[in-house]
Write a structure and sequence with these properties.
Blueprint lengths: L6 E9 L4 H13 L4 E6 L3 E3 L10 E10 L3 H14 L15 E7 L4 E2 L4 E2 L8 H10 L12 H7 L7 E3 L3
Helix pairs in contact: 3-4
The structure holds 2-amino-6-hydroxymethyl-7,8-dihydro-3H-pteridin-4-one and magnesium ion (2 copies).
């Protein structure tokens, strides 16, 4: 590859159906196996209480950082194919149960707002299950719209809200 520019991106990984941990591991391994994608950071796994739609099972969540020569939309589409390969069925409940969810959070400092892709992810700054694992990888990463670090965003969340435990707890 000549003159490809390499970008930094973060994904949130989640599952609350079936073999949750297995699905998350499959998602991470499949992202790492993509052409023009290299894994540069992986968080621990967390057990997390469901948010937004609470009448569903707890999730396993994690985050990864990658270096990629892909563009954001190609990366998004590749992630959607991986979700589908993990048996993801897009049901009627917007925030409902899923075998595998790979959410593109950041792509460098890109700000994108199209029907297909919104960057940074529009809800990431309110979600402990996203911010905690991203902070495990790179606490100083700056949210390009909010202008503060992911660690500062994590510290702003209400104490006690949104239970997040490491898998060993
Ligand atoms: N994903 C959702 C909705 N709610 N809650 C937790 N704890 N973890 C998730 O990954 C999650 C959620 C929709 O994508
Ligand atoms: Mg999601
Ligand atoms: Mg998603």
């Amino acid at each position: 590859m000549r003159n490809a520019r390499w970008h930094k991106a973060f994904f949130s990984i989640g599952s609350n159906l079936g073999d949750k941990l297995g699905h998350c591991r499959y998602g991470i391994a499949s992202l790492a196996a993509l052409k023009d994608v290299h894994l540069s950071g992986v968080s621990p796994f967390y057990r997390t209480a469901p948010v937004d739609y609470t009448d569903q099972d707890w999730f396993i969540n994690a985050a990864v950082r990658i270096a990629t020569a892909l563009d954001p939309v190609s990366l998004l589409r590749a992630a959607r194919s991986i979700e589908n390969a993990a048996g993801r069925v897009r049901g009627p409940i917007p925030f409902g149960p899923r075998t595998l969810d790979l959410d593109l959070l950041f792509f460098d400092d890109a700000i994108i707002c199209t029907p297909e892709l919104e960057l940074p992810h529009p809800r990431l700054h309110k979600r402990r299950f996203v911010l905690q694992p991203v902070c495990d990888i790179e606490p100083g990463f700056v949210h390009p719209l909010l202008g503060c670090s992911v660690k500062a965003l994590l510290d702003k969340l209400d104490v006690g809200a949104q239970e997040v435990f490491t898998l060993d707890d």
